[in-house]
Amino acid sequence: MKSEQSFDYVVIGAGSSGCVVANRLSSNPETTVLLLEAGGPDTNPAIHEPSALLGLWGSDVDWKYFTEEQPHLHGRKLMISRGKVLGGCSAIYAMIYVRGNPKDFDTWNYLGNEGWSYADVLPYFKKSEDNEAGANEYHGVGGPLCVRNIPHPTPVAYAFAKAARELGYGGPDWDFNASQQEEGGGLYQVNITPEGKRCSTAVGFLKPILDRPNLTVTTWAQVSKLLFDGSRVVGVEYVQNGQTHQVNVNREVIVSAGAFDSPKLLMLSGIGPADHLQTHGIPVVSDLPGVGQNLQDHMLLPVVYKSKQVLPEPGFIAEAGLFVRTRPGMAAAAPDLQFHFSAGISKLTLPDYPVDGPTFVFVPILAKPQSRGTITLRSSNPIDPPVIHPHYLESETDLQVFLKGIELARQLAQTSAFAEFNDGEVAPGLPKTAAELKEYVQTHCSTVWHPVGTCKMGRDAMAVVDPQLRVYGVEGLRVADASIMPVITSGNTNAACIMIGEKAADMILKL
Q1: Is the entire prediction scored with pTM above 0.90?
Q2: pLDDT for 481-495, tens place per residue?
């Protein structure tokens, strides 16, 4: 099959990182850029209405991936939503803007990834931002990504921030993206426009530049493999409307398909663990045992309380938050426990804990999981989803963090700030033995849908990309998305994915 067209750069995946890369690379009118997206345009009105969030999960703009049965979750399979639409996961996520802890990025740098310390990446966070609070040492204005204080918080969200202060944590106007993320509770910032609409990366980075003559955006285009001349990427093959197409690449391919589909595409193209590829009859281009390994994901657990008073339906499923460390001796590390908090959302009630009337929900989140999972091929057919095995709670430490989270939620609920709201714990409920609490964690914890790490950046034997995000063993190929994180960030991952896109494009443009 002959290649139909030729582009300087091909970006695979129009998600949280890919839209950023396409925007910045096409800013040079002398280069041509093709952006390929397996999903369709973001024309569903629900994408743009924050209040319609829950209806997007499991819809036709969601890949609706499922894990394998998880032994430490009583054999449960969990659905992991992934955006199948322009904007990717940024079109269906909860819009919470948390960059991660400065120590996260210093850790990346420590692991041999020069240029990825907090001081190195902060300018890229600021470059993206249009923060309503204005510019300062930590925030930027004029960027494509709208960052706003959460509008119209419920009274109980303010109570959470006050409760955190009662327990010795700073608040209530805490900025999780400023000098110090941890040990403070406050209201989250969100990625919405001044008009109150979702600001996905498609909205912020892609739509304003669609008229660039050197940028081509192709939807419903699922990439099936990369094309090589020896060890150099020279093209891309994709399927659209049942037809197979090929395009030539003059300079580089940037894979931004996410923590599941980036390693899947590399393996389908012959980059990955040689024995696994050979099992599926795939010729080996580069034997990289780390492809698909090192999977990390944040997990959540609902701790539900009845409210003494009727509460307004919250505009966001997480209004307020808190970051803490659960054990001594961790001062040099990022927090391992995050909280989301909101007034109870009716559609998120637990079927085995029925309750009439209003509720509010503490959501402890495993911010630094020690369990590690894998992504492998189900077959050599590009249409088949990958095998997702996160090994949730395989590490006993992860379960202990959740138990600490329950304990801290109860302490927060008993503060004077919650006196006018707290009408008793619903789930897991009192009294509970240690064994019963462990059972509750295993049967009720779920994923926050923040998978990362499966094409990790580094210099060790399991690294897939170098600090310039170039894939080892081949030429003309980079990965730029959540999969390159060697260690997951402490906090929601979307902002860090945008930063990765910014830095990747900058490194390419400076060549």
Answers
A1: yes
A2: 999 999 999 999 999
